[in-house]
Amino acid sequence: MTPQPQRTEPEAAAAAPTPEPATTSGTSTSSAPATVGRLPILGVKPEVEAGRWPAKAFAGEVVSFGATAFREGHDLIGVRALLTSPTGARSTVILDPGAPGTDTWVGSARLDDEGTWTFRILSFADEFATWHHNAEIKIDAGIDVELMYTIGEQLLTEAASDEGRPEDERRLLSDHAATLASSTDPEARRAVLDDPDLAEIARQRPFMGLRSESDERSIVVERTRAGFASWYEFFPRSEGAKKNADGSWSSGNFRTAAERLPAVAAMGFDVVYLPPIHPIGRAFRKGPNNTLDAGPNDPGSPWAIGSAEGGHDAIHPDLGTVADFEAFVAAASALGMEVALDLALQASPDHPWVTEHPEWFTTLPDGTIAYAENPPKKYQDIYPINFDNDPEGIRAEVLRIVRYWMSLGVRTFRVDNPHTKPVEFWEWLIGEVNASDPDVVFLAEAFTRPAMMRALAKVGFQQGYSYFTWRNTREELEEFFGSISTETADYYRPNLFVNTPDILTEYLQFGGPAAFTIRAALAATAGPLWGVYSGFELFENVARPGSEENIDNEKYEYKPRDYAAAEAAGSSLGLFIGTLNRVRREHPALGQLRNLRLHSSDDDSILVYSKHLSAELSPTGTADTVIVVANVDPHSVRETTVHLDSTAFGIPSGTPFRVRDVITDTVWEWGEHNYVRLDAFTTPVHILEILEDRP
């Protein structure tokens, strides 16, 4: 499919006046550096590090194009983005002027085809716009009247001779040229300047004079689920686990874990993420709550990978066989979900690599192998990989492992701590995999410094964990949402996980059920990607003293949960989460990243934002707008006024409109200023859809 641009312009437009012969910006084939060009084009968007890496999008994503473009003097210019799809189809996106005085130009297109798109920014002397601007001023002032009409007649006559234009368009241009040439009907001549049909012709197929083009940029468009998905994490060993009379455990397995899949699908999730499923080492095995004294019945951390039973290409015997894993993947697929597997490049002291490839680890001066540390945390049960002693060997092994799991149906990998491995390694690995299998998705679990997180995204990671987990106040959330939807949106796709086995924030520990409701609503509506670790829907909020981790952490022990009993008791967020995921599917505006617009309120704890998709960019052909108003203080009842810029979603200022709360089904008439009452203990969030169809 071709892109669905904000406004399309047929290729015939490029066949208007002959381009100026001089070298255009960035297109010189000589050895000399490219000049700025006859019509300067700067700040092209989207681009990543001046084109070092391609920008990113996913199929169906609306992408913003832009540039700074201008010329000397007062004559007017026009700007277009010239797109070429992976199939070779060409299309044009009209760029409109940005903020006055900035010489910026912006426009949007929906990119549907997967693969590599290319584009250039075209800047041209807009002969019609310049004449029209001058003619309106001079004719109404009685200055150079005949000269203005003569110039207009010549422009329209020349355009009418263009055989690339539609016949009815050429006829209208000829008729208007004749009218301008006549001096017998002054009102008819002046009316030509006000004809909206002529203005639209000039906009869609402009009268071009001088032209310049930017260098070519590229955008990699990946499959939709790379950018729009709802993730659910659970430990298969806990699903169906039973404690025996003697204190030992019978582990859950892929068969019992598959019984959980229908409930996960019913909540609307489409990716099931499993922590490592490989054999677990016994050396320095961790006991409950990360203690060093594991008992004989303690299963150990799944991230301490490797034992006599095998390493990264093996399945823990308690979980089942390869056939059982394939059956689990098939069961998920039958419910419309896919399985994401953990890729943790580290090893327990018992991993076969330790004896077969000791060069893949770091040996200390005392002869011991260095274990993992993140002071004050110590992971004596895990050896980190050294990527420098035998880079070719470790690369070949990791690629083999990834391709092995791909052969069993895995197309998504959640990568553990990628920021502790060389960035160039990930650029190589993801490049190798995506070169042959562009549908494979890698999620970076990197809660680290911004530069590293962004670099991982630039070199290939389709998704990344983010700072959302720790952004709780209105001010923090506004800054975060503004950043991810604008500053980094061309390459960084944040997956807004609300919790993880490692992270139970103070907000969730002390905010009660309201905190869980608020966090889920924000994550599900602010970004196209979000995720939940099991237990969140049960309001699990007790932390190990002095930490952000759940007490009795599932990383170190079995943790079966009675989800049905919690739902029966009204102690589950499952139905609300299901509603959120349903609303995400029903509202294409929520499937976009770049369209978040912040609004304001008179209360520092009331966060307000909207997501809008115009009819021409929406896959349904209908405009879609969702407004979120959230009380981010889970301990209070708030009454205030919220202030909306309704022009952000196509409604003129001062025009009332109807909204429906998709959670409570309540309908109100709203406008620019609206009273709200948000009770954190009953209704902490409004998720509103605008009922009227708008442009």
Q: Which value, in Å, is the CA radius of gyration?
A: 30 Å
Largest beta sheet, briefly? 10 strands, mixed
Mean pLDDT: 94
**Structural category:** alpha/beta
Write down how many β-strands occur, each being a DSSP E stretch of 2 or more residues: 33
What share of residues is helical? 25-40%
DSSP strand content: 15-25%
Low-confidence stretches: 1-31
Distinct helical segment count: 16
* Distance N to C terminus: 23 Å
Rough outline:
elongated
Q: How would you describe the overall organization of this protein?
A:
It catalyses: alpha-maltose 1-phosphate + [(1->4)-alpha-D-glucosyl](n) = [(1->4)-alpha-D-glucosyl](n+2) + phosphate. Residues 229-565 form the Glycosyl hydrolase family 13 catalytic domain. Alpha-maltose 1-phosphate binds at residues 286, 346, 381, 417, 555-556. Homodimer. This protein is an alpha/beta fold and 695 residues long. The chain has 16 helices and 33 strands. The strands form 7 sheets. Strands 1, 2, 3, 4, 5, 6, 7, 8, 9 and 10 form a 10-stranded mixed beta sheet that branches. It has an 8-stranded parallel beta barrel with strand order 11-14-15-20-21-22-23-24. A hairpin with a 5-residue loop joins strand 12 (242-243) and strand 13. The radius of gyration is 30 Å and the shape is elongated. The two termini are 23 Å apart. The model is unreliable at 1-31 (pLDDT under 50).
